[in-house]
Amino acid sequence: MRSLVLLFLVGCGDNLAVPDASNGPPKDDAAAGSDAAGIAAPDLRFQWVGASTANQIGSTINVGFASGAGGAMSVHDGHSVISPLQISVDGLVKGNYSWDVAVFSSTVPATGLSSTASTGAIAALDTDLSTTLGTTGVVTSIDIQPDAYAYVVQNDANATYTVSHLDAARSGIDAMVLQLANAGQVPTAVSASPTANQVRVYMTARTGDTTPYETQVVDCTPADFADQANTLAAAGFFITAFGRVANDKMILIGTRSNANPRTTTVAMGDETTTADLSTGAAIVAWIFETADPVSVIVTEK
């Protein structure tokens, strides 16, 4: 049974089988695997959900972009993995952006892993991202602004992934994503598109996986973000993509191969609270509201 934990942070910037290419994400009835045997990386399209009996945040780092000064990059190899971006949903100042990411480690130190958080001027997005992805990477988070971008990519040297993206009006996204998911592709990141009035979704295929996935695309705001995430998890969806598409407007995308219900838990804290990943939960979405200020981390397991 999968659970979701939401941590509301005020004032701050199961033992499941490891997924593989043949069966997609962990199934609720999957045979339990030992940490010692879990040396292969999980299917990175599913945000590390269900991949370990315990995770731990080691640090929080910041990557920014400033006009005239350029972007930033942080790379972690091996045991450390970079979480999805903390995305500011309001109060944005053009030409000056900042994103936080958490660096976490798993009790299962998978081989061949590396993670990159990178920012830059919007004109460089496609070239920069393609270079980082190669044939082994997955875009696990992205935030596209009119003049800049930030993304997180996780790479597994022992797997082959094929990443593509679609740009469309919001009204066409649900059907397009579902069609590709039915053929085995998973939506792993969503954001506003560089093309005005459109949404961009990154879809990822993994060699060997032809699972017909089901998807659900959900619009949300800071006010109903927690409820929408709860609803997705309760319906059995892994939250595989999350992003900002306009001020105070976000999209959550869930992916599932079965409809087994999950349970949800809500925890609240202040600026000293961090996401508790000790039971194997993984961060799947993270926002910051400048107006309040409130930060919300969504974890799933």
Entry keywords:
single chain, 301 residues, mainly beta, five-stranded mixed beta sheet, four-stranded antiparallel beta sheet, 3 helices, 18 strands, 11% helix, globular
For the largest beta sheet, what order do the strands appear in spatially?
5-17-18-1-16
Give the DSSP E fraction (strand runs of 2 or more residues). Answer: over 45%
Question: Which regions contain 5 or more consecutive residues with pLDDT less than 50?
Answer: 8-24, 26-38, 266-272
**Overall form:** globular
Number of folding domains? Answer: 1
The overall strand count is 18
Q: Averaged pLDDT, please?
A: 83
The rounded Rg comes to 17 Å
Distance between the termini: 8 Å
Largest sheet: 5 strands, mixed
Helical run tally: 3
The structure class reads: mainly beta
In percent, how helical is the residue content?
A: 10-25%
Order of helices and strands: EEEEEEEHEEEHEEEHEEEEE
